[in-house]
Specification:
single chain; about 120 residues; mainly alpha; three-stranded antiparallel beta sheet; 3 strands; disordered N terminus; G-protein coupled receptor; transmembrane helix; G-protein coupled receptors family 1 profile domain-containing protein; GPCR_Rhodpsn
Length: about 120
């Protein structure tokens, strides 16, 4: 009578070369292995990758426009904040709402504009 291995082993392990192996109960004893992407890509036209992205025609105008929007937004929102908080006698709910919108707009400018320039 043949001996059958009835031990169930459910484990997942990743090896150094990103090979994912999953072992489940299998009467035949086969090892099922799935290879993952190792991050190596083959390009047919390698010269396109060697060119600098700064030479593209849209980079300089886009940087200038984003810079102007950033500076105008920062200066304009700071003026709103200082003007609204400058007078203690005029503070009301509407003014505080405008201040909170200006602060949110400054935070948006500080996060989105640099992210878009680096993209």
């Amino acid at each position: 009578m043949a001996s059958v291995n009835t031990e169930t082993n459910k484990s997942v392990m990743a090896t150094a070369n990103n090979q994912l192996s999953t072992y489940h109960y299998n009467e035949s004893g086969d090892n099922h292995t799935t290879e993952m992407d190792d991050g190596i890509y083959f390009y047919e036209d390698i010269e396109k990758l060697k060119t600098s992205w700064v030479n593209e025609p849209h980079v300089l105008p886009q940087t200038i426009i984003y810079g102007i929007v950033f500076l105008l937004g920062l200066v304009g929102n700071c003026i709103v904040i200082f003007a609204a908080l400058g007078r203690r006698s005029n503070r009301n709910v509407t003014l505080m709402f405008m201040v909170s919108l200006a602060v949110a707009d400054i935070l948006f400018l500080l996060v989105v504009i640099p992210h878009e320039l680096l993209r």
